[in-house]
Design a protein that fits this description.
With about 375 residues, the protein is α/β, with parallel strands linked by helices. It folds into three domains: about 190 residues, Isopropylmalate Dehydrogenase (3-Layer(aba) Sandwich), CATH 3.40.718; about 120 residues, Rossmann fold; about 45 residues, no CATH class. Helix content is about 40%, strand content about 25%. The chain has eleven helices and 14 strands. It has a ten-stranded mixed beta sheet, sandwiched between helices. A two-stranded antiparallel sheet has the order 6-9. The protein has a two-stranded antiparallel sheet with strand order 7-8. Helix 1 packs across helix 9, helix 1 packs parallel to helix 11 and helix 7 packs parallel to helix 8. The longest helix is centred in the N-terminal third of the chain and has 19 residues. It is globular and about 65 Å long. Bound molecules: 3-isopropylmalic acid (IPM) and manganese (II) ion (MN).
């Protein structure tokens, strides 16, 4: 029997409850198809940090590296200053394992009300978000003296970035600075990924999300490199570009008019939430952080501490992320089964059987059980 070692990090808030349901469904899928998932669970998250002062040790990442894939629930807790857990765990994992693709599909599910009338069409688009660069380099600081010196010493799989940023205002005032990088190899590889995906989806266009009219160096560069990769390597594809502000406008007015959206890191973060809302809510938005090494699958939503433990969370986004993980492992049939089970469940569910998010009355566990019946 085929066996996969899976690192699992349930994390904070609703993370543990949604991951619980996801694991049961993945296990059942494996039983039916003749593969087994060996789960290696990690305790990291806010509760662990508050108890022990430890965020996530290097030794844990060295262990995770040996796994075939990773499943993550959610990270973030109001008891901890924003950024500490997110950067210490989530971003640390993305960077450490060079998960340069953040893949976030948005599609319509039966019975899920959308905030904008889709006029009988279905939403089926995907954000391909660059996941290691842009404003997410973690190069930043603030000063009260009018002088700021930021030493930079960053290791990425593609390069080491060393140097420093020295800034001074006259007259002196407090300020903050944050630096962004988009590199040629970084943009090239994400463009190739987006182009391959467009081909696989049977589409003829990759749309680059930009803002080169105002942030010319950073996003003009991204556009140029992406355009060249598509022209040189994918003559069958068209390169299109849209500024992120205009994209927000068009998406709300006409949500179904895009396929593959290739985004720099920050725009991808924002657009994927917008897409999730347009498709009916974060409760069904799945995602993967994908690279050549350990890839990690997680729902787009956060830890929702306000509803943790009440049963009101919706496990669907985590379950669909689990399906993306199976697909990545080469268990395409398993992925297809889970996607179909979710869609069949939604199709046939009575109003009461729906999750609270869709005005139903079923707890996270009941939703998981009901989806599992369709596997
Ligand atoms: C996401 C989240 C993270 C991000 C946060 C929690 C650091 O919003 O995965 O979209 O900005 O990437
Ligand atoms: Mn986000």
């Amino acid at each position: 029997m085929k066996k996969y070692n899976i690192a699992v990090l349930p994390g904070d808030g609703i993370g543990p409850e949604i991951i619980n349901e996801t694991r049961k469904i993945l296990d059942k899928t494996g039983e039916g198809l003749g593969f087994k998932l060996d789960w290696n669970e990690y305790p990291y998250g806010a509760a662990h940090y508050l108890k022990t002062g430890e965020i996530m040790p290097e030794s844990a990442m060295n262990e995770m590296e040996k796994c075939d894939a990773m499943l993550l629930g959610a990270i973030g807790d109001p008891r901890v200053k924003p950024g500490i857990m997110e950067q210490g765990i989530l971003l640390a994992l993305r960077f450490r394992f060079d998960q340069y693709v953040n893949l976030r599909p948005a599609f319509s599910l039966p019975k899920v009300k959308t905030p904008v009338d889709l006029k009988g069409t279905r939403m089926d688009s995907v954000v391909v978000r660059e996941n290691t660069e842009d404003l997410y380099m973690c190069i930043g600081g603030t000063t009260d003296t009018g002088e700021l010196e930021l030493p930079i010493n960053i290791t990425r799989k593609l390069y080491e970035l060393k140097g420093s940023l020295k800034l001074k205002t006259d007259p002196r005032c407090s300020f903050a600075a944050q630096a962004a990088i988009n590199s040629k190899p970084g943009v090239e590889r994400i463009t190739r990924y987006a182009s391959e995906l467009a081909k696989k989806r049977g589409e003829n266009t990759v749309t680059v999300v930009s803002k080169s009219n105002a942030v010319s160096a950073l996003y003009g560069f991204f556009e140029e490199i992406a355009k060249k990769v598509i022209a040189d390597e994918y003559p069958e594809l068209k390169f299109a570009v849209v500024n992120v502000d205009a994209l927000c406008y068009h998406l709300v007015r006409n949500p179904t008019s895009y396929g593959v959206l290739l985004c720099p890191n920050l725009f991808g973060d924002i657009i994927s939430d917008l897409q999730a809302a347009l498709a009916g809510g974060l409760g069904t938005a799945a995602g993967g952080n994908i690279g050549e090494g350990l890839s990690m699958f997680e729902p787009v939503h956060g830890s929702a501490p306000d509803i943790a433990g009440t049963g009101r969370s919706n496990p669907i986004a985590a379950i669909l992320s689990g399906a993306m993980m199976l697909d990545h492992l080469g268990e395409e049939e398993g992925a297809r089964k889970i996607n179909k089970a979710v869609s069949d469940f939604m199709e046939n569910a009575t109003n009461n059987e729906l999750p609270f998010e869709f005005a139903g009355e079923s707890t996270c566990e009941q939703v998981g059980k009901n989806i599992s019946k369709y596997i």
